[in-house]
Amino acid sequence: MDIALLSVSLNVHSTRRIAEEAEKLGHYVELIDHTKCSVKLGDGKPKIFLGEEDVTNEFDAIIPRIGTKVTRHGAAIVKQFEMNGVFSTARSLGITRARNKVRTLQIMARKGIPIPETLFSINPDNIGEQIRILGGAPVIIKIQEGTQGMGVILAESKKSAKSIIDTFYKMDTSILLQRYVEEANGEDIRIIVVGNKVVASMKRTSEIDEFRSNVHRGGNTEAVEITHREKFIALNATKYLGLGVSGVDLMRSKNGPVLLEVNASPGLKGIEGATGVNVAKHIIQFVEKNAYRRRK
User: Fold this and answer.
1) CB of 49 closer than 8 Å to CB of 84
2) Using an 8 Å Cβ cutoff, are 3 and 27 in contact?
3) Which CA distances in Å does 231 have to 197, 252, 281?
4) What is the Cα gyration radius of the chain?
5) Which of 29, 30, 200, 208 is spaced 20 to 30 Å from 88 by Cα?
6) Percent helix, percent strand, percent coil in the chain, to nearest 5
7) How far, rounded to the nearest angstrom, does the alpha carbon of residue 133 sit from its chain's CA centroid?
8) Mind listing the pLDDT tens digit for each residue in 59-75?
């Protein structure tokens, strides 16, 4: 098959790994920088251009690896490929839903997926009440569209929480507040879902004096066996967002696992290194099962 990798560079580890596995399995793979793509509408059938090159009908499948800063444009490019009948490992709507933490949690709450106690507001006049609604400090403060642990702050006192929240409100930055799950002890679980199957899972543990367990924040990783309940949450969260490939983050609370967020473009370096699972190969095999050749 001819596969397009929607990413800004092959220097990105996960993008390179996917390209390597596609080539090993005999497919043609091409990097398509979605930030340099344009869509032309009107005057006949819509067309997708990379620079001046028409790539509308060049690919049997696309694998989106859309960065945070260009989510809207990237998702629009994915949508156009979808409308032209090209298989995508992530639906455009799923990408935009997963990128917004509040939207993800709203969907999960409606579907009965357990999540941490969460509050979002834009009212700067009742910050104290907002903190009290969550049971008081400490609280976690998250930027709604942060990634890799960036934009996640632990406010250990009411005074510091009010100061941080007030600053974000004044900067017109969308945030959410969550109850701090102390018993998780700086650990979370990353589960990779491909299609309707969990292919790998790892436990991430934060460094000393760092509550965030993300690999990009220096967290330690190791393979972990997940429970039936955790598998159920990961598979259904992926399905509810409309994703074919996802990285689902869970935390083990005293009341059971709770979903933190879902990543539509999960990194592969940490999970492959920790588990020894060839996740990139699973992604290509998923494409093989679901895409078809569009051109003779």
Assistant:
1) no
2) yes
3) 9, 13, 21
4) 20
5) 200
6) 35, 30, 35
7) 28
8) 999 999 998 788 899 99
Report long-range pairs for 147-156 (Cβ below 8 Å, ≥24 apart): 147/68, 147/263, 148/214, 148/216, 148/217, 148/267, 149/212, 149/213, 149/214, 149/216, 149/217, 150/216, 152/212, 154/180, 154/211
Torsions phi, psi of 281, nearest 5?
-65, -40
Stated pTM of the model: 0.89
C-alpha dihedral sign at 209, 213, 214, 216: positive
Beta strands across the sheet bearing 197-205:
220-223, 197-205, 187-194, 245-253, 256-263
pLDDT in tens, 50-108: 999 999 999 999 999 998 788 899 999 999 999 999 999 999 999 999 998 899 999 99
pLDDT value at 278 more than 80 = yes
* Strand duo 37-40 + 28-32: pairing: unpaired
Which residue(s) pair with 6 in the sheet? 32, 64
Distances (CA, A) of 283 to 5, 80, 89, 102, 194: 12, 21, 8, 27, 6
Kindly state the tokens that stand for 118: 């969460």
Helices (H) and strands (E) in the chain, counts: 9, 16
User: What are the phi and psi torsion angles at 189 (to 5°)?
Assistant: -120, 130
Q: Are 237 and 259 in contact (CB under 8 A)?
A: yes
**Distance, CA of 214 to chain centre:** 13
User: Is there a contact between 15 and 5 (Cβ–Cβ < 8 Å)?
Assistant: yes
- The token duo for 150 is 């960036």
* DSSP line for 104-124: HHHHHHHHT-----EE----T
Which residues are within 8 A (CB) of 10 and not within 5 positions of it... i.e. 6 or more apart? 16, 19, 31
Q: Token pair for residue 213?
A: 């367990």
pLDDT > 90? residue 290:
yes
